[in-house]
Amino acid sequence: MDKLVLKCVIVDDEPMALNLVESYVKKTPFLELLKKCSSALEALEFIGEHPVDLLFLDIQMPDLTGLEFSRMLNGNTKVIFTTAFDQYALEGFKVEALDYLLKPFDYAEFLNAANKAKTWFTMLRQGKGQLKESQDVSSDKKDFLFVKSEYKQLRVKLADVLYFEGLKDYIKIWLKNEPKPILTLMSLKALEEELPETDFMRVHRSFIVSLKNIDVIERSQIIINDQRITVSEQYKTRFLEFINNNSL
User: Fold this and answer.
1) Cβ count near 100 (within 10 Å)
2) Residue 212 burial (CB count, 10 A)
């Protein structure tokens, strides 16, 4: 197994706290700092476009608190809270935080929390590796995903998905017989890596479609459940290959 490196982001509206955690991250070999943000809104925009393993997240911030922000994350990103107020500890664990650092904390305390994250992700990778080996043997394909939406982890059957629509920071998941989509914080790029290639295809910077649920192909447009989706030039070659391989 490859050496574990956790990609992390620091979020804190206090510059001194931000710089202190940055110094701790940089001296920890298995942590890679992608960005430090002075607000949850700034971090929200960044995470919507970049896969992040771990957040060091302050709780009391203007506009959007750390607790509110953490409830918007999908299960791929874990949180270690950093705060000066111990009354938030219980709430922190309710949103499945890996740990809770009470300011002021030293490097030993920080490292202990970071090691908890390292252990969690090591176990996760080992579990995925075992699952992949099992899938390779049985040739079974993934048929569902768990996505975080409105404080819950929802089990979404891939057979029910019509298409995924990417917004700036979110993805809309459009399902059969459902008038409203599921909304989740995730990038289309990260999602694309989780989907079976034989069933789903990226056809536009903002759309991944279910190949089995295409109703009509009309010139450079796909029609799924009355929704017209344009196949952009960037993805047209691969899509035309799919059409040719499945035409009479």
Assistant:
1) 19
2) 12
Percent share of the chain, pLDDT over 90: 42
Calpha distance 144→107 (Å, rounded): 40
CA distances from 3 to 78, 125, 132 (A): 19, 11, 18
Question: Do the strands 171-175 and 161-166 form a parallel or antiparallel pair, or are they unpaired?
Answer: antiparallel
* Residue 207 CB-half CA count within 13 A: 22
Answer positive or negative: Cα dihedral of 218, 221, 224, 226.
Answer: negative
Query: Which stretches in the chain have pLDDT values below 50?
Result: 1, 88-94, 131-139
Please tell me the distance from the alpha carbon of residue 166 to that of residue 185, in angstroms, as a whole number.
Answer: 10
CATH of 144-245, one of 2.60.40.10, 2.40.50.1020, 3.30.450.40, 1.10.1200.10: 2.40.50.1020
The superfamily (CATH) of domain 6-135 is: Response regulator (3.40.50.2300)
Distance CA(197)–CA(135), nearest Å, equals 15
User: Which of 191, 195, 189 has its CA nearest to residue 142?
Assistant: 195
Give the amino acid at 217: I
Q: What is the pLDDT of residues 62-98, one digit of tens each?
A: 878 888 888 888 767 899 988 876 654 444 444 567 8
Tens-place pLDDT, residues 155-189: 899 999 999 999 877 899 999 989 999 998 888 88
Secondary structure in 3-state letters for 121-181: HHHHHHHHHHHHHHHHHHCCCCCEEEEEECCEEEEEEHHHEEEEEECCCCEEEEECCCCCC
